[in-house]
Amino acid sequence: xxxxxxxxxxxxxxxxxxxxxxxxxxxxxxxxxxxxxxxxxxxxxxxxxxxxxxxxxxxxxxxxxxxxxxxxxxxxxxxxxxxxxxxxxxxxxxxxxxxxxxxxxxxxxxxxxxxxxxxxxxxxxxxxxxxxxxxxxxxxxxxxxxxxxxxxxxxxxxxxxxxxxxxxxxxxxxxxxxxxxxxxxxxxxxxxxxxxxxxxxxxxxxxxxxxxxxxxxxxxxxxxxxxxxxxxxxxxxxxxxxxxxxxxxxxxxxxxxxxxxxxxxxxxxxxxxxxxxxxxxxxxxxxxxxxxxxxxxxxxxxxxxxxxxxxxxxxxxxxxxxxxxxxxxxxxxxxxxxxxxxxxxxxxxxxxxxxxxxxxxxxxxxxxxxxxxxx
Length: 375
Ligand SMILES: CC(C)(COP(=O)(O)OP(=O)(O)OC[C@H]1O[C@@H](n2cnc3c(N)ncnc32)[C@H](O)[C@@H]1OP(=O)(O)O)[C@@H](O)C(=O)NCCC(=O)NCCS
Known about the structure:
This protein is mainly α and 375 residues long. The protein has 2 domains: 19-168 and 183-220 and 326-348, Orthogonal Bundle (Citrate Synthase, domain 1), CATH 1.10.580; 223-319, CATH 1.10.230.10. The protein is built from 16 helices and 3 strands. It has helices at 35-38, 44-53, 59-71, 77-85, 92-103, 115-140, 154-163, 169-182, 189-198, 204-215, 223-234, 240-249, 268-283, 287-303, 309-319, 327-348; strands at residues 19-22, 27-30, 33-34. The chain has a 3-stranded antiparallel β-sheet with strand order 1-2-3. A hairpin with a 2-residue loop joins strand 2 and strand 3 (33-34). Helix 2 runs parallel beside helix 16 and helix 9 (189-198) packs antiparallel against helix 10. The longest helix has 26 residues, at 115-140. The protein binds coenzyme A. Coenzyme A binds next to helix 15.
């Protein structure tokens, strides 16, 4: 009898040169670099190059990539029309998923399946997903959609679209580091979804669309939004213990806590925690971080579980003034670098994913009863 690995836990589905999640020692590696070595030293654009090409870029390579990303920011008019017409109360993740899927409709080279054409598509999606998110946020508020700018990096441009003005150096740097920390993460659920889709030799727009739909769930990228909702519901530091007691008794999952692979601290969490502490101190609003610290301590003590990437990123984005329902879109914008890199890697050595399932339905032999006689 075959062994069922529920949730595919422990199953090695493929090899990858992109990133390694060492859950036992709490280490995350991007193409040979420890995340602790990268965070704060390199930009998101350098990480994109690292994931797409296996090496950090030279200055010339970075300039070329940056120029290319900026040149691809403009959205097809049909996508802009959709973003302005989409219901204002829609979830941004649903809108982004639909708009990224729409980008495929405007791909004039769709018959070209060469690696070069797919790289071009990777640039196109990576350059546009932040514009899609920013434009939708403006459109739903009834604000105008300014022309895209080419004088800003990815993080700054997204903040510019959200707020209508160039961000401070500190805000840009904070979001850029968050992008770096979220860019890739081994065979996580959304990356796996992207690889499963592209492995059928579907197209890259479809694969990223699958990934976005997978990321939005609260057990994956949606957890960062869940953290803020939880903090709001708890309300104060004094209420944390009693709230957690009740939630644990009701067997609720505490958002931003726990991880399938990390059995020790998620190495991204301390970077985000440090940023959250700094930002909240500067704002003079330390309540969220104090509540977070208490939740983390109780969960460690009671369940032996640690905070994950989403736990502190929520406070970081909140402190930057970013609306809660744009938190998961930020994750998607950053992870597009990893998704597209995995898609290109999958295509370079493709094999269809086709696992088995154990049948537990009724024994075979049932006979069809004519519909008029069925009860
Ligand atoms: C990430 C996550 C989905 C991993 O799930 P998983 O590997 O399937 O682990 P399980 O759900 O089987 O959890 C194992 C045990 O830890 C408990 N646990 C795990 N995460 C928990 C959480 N966030 N809150 C409370 N208990 C949790 C489970 O209840 C279970 O306990 P039990 O054995 O007594 O039943 C899970 O930890 C979770 O739901 N976390 C909250 C959502 C989140 O932050 N997601 C972002 C991940 S980066």
